[in-house]
Amino acid sequence: MTQTPDSIADARRVPLPRPGPGAPQRRMAEMLRVDHAGEFAAVHIYRAQRAILGDRKGMEQITGDLTEMEGHEQVHLDRFNALLNEHKVRPTAMIPVWKIAATVLGAGTALIGEKAAHACTEAVESVIEEHYADQIKEISDRDPELAAELTQFREEELAHHDHAIAHGSREAPAYRLLSSVIKVGCKAAIKISERI
Ligand SMILES: [Fe+2]
Ligand SMILES: [Fe+2]
């Protein structure tokens, strides 16, 4: 039997390029994966901050606020869990790493103090809201329903961001350094979670 180039490729299981129709699905998978990872991390940051500050006297206000914000993040996370299932997309393989990183970030900033915890929120939420803004722009034509959901989530992230500033995030020790390090970390985590 004569071997055509196609049959040789089949026999060697050479992956053929998949341009065209697969591309939007792959992009959707990337978007859902990274959003799910971000919300997963947000839940664990707030949870860790609450665990540290909840034991301290005089921290009732911030502990209550953290509980409320963690509740919003849990709603966001539940929605992305459902979307991952619906679109048959796997979560990022980095989930166990993000759980540790988010817990260390939340606990570390809470141990520095209430204002550092707020500085963490301001930095994280500023990256997340920009990330959602980019996605909303990208999908508003092809998936207006998802764009509307992301718009609502983004508004809640902005409310967390503004709440942090109103409660003294910018008076945290080493605010600029803390904020820059957290933002760089979040942006790197976004890139990694899209791909892995
Ligand atoms: Fe969120
Ligand atoms: Fe948030």
Weakly predicted, low-confidence segments? none
Please tally the β strands and state the result.
Answer: 0
Determine the strand fraction and express it as a percent band: under 5%
If you compute it from the alpha carbons, what radius of gyration comes out, rounded to the nearest whole angstrom? 20 Å
Shape: elongated
Number of domains as seen in the coordinates? 1
Measured between the Cα atoms of the first and last residue, the distance is 41 Å
Instruction: Indicate the CATH topology.
Output: Heme Oxygenase, Chain A
Q: How helical, in percent, are the residues?
A: over 70%
Q: Give the H and E element order.
A: HHHHHHH
Distinct bound molecules: fe (ii) ion
CATH architecture: Up-down Bundle
How many strands, which pairing sense, and closed or not: the largest β-sheet?
A: none
Mean pLDDT: 89
What top-tier CATH class fits best? Mainly Alpha
Structure annotation, total helices: 7
Structural class: mainly alpha
In short:
This protein has 196 residues and is mainly α. The protein contains 7 helices and no strands. The chain has a single domain (24-195), classed as Heme Oxygenase, Chain A, CATH 1.20.910.
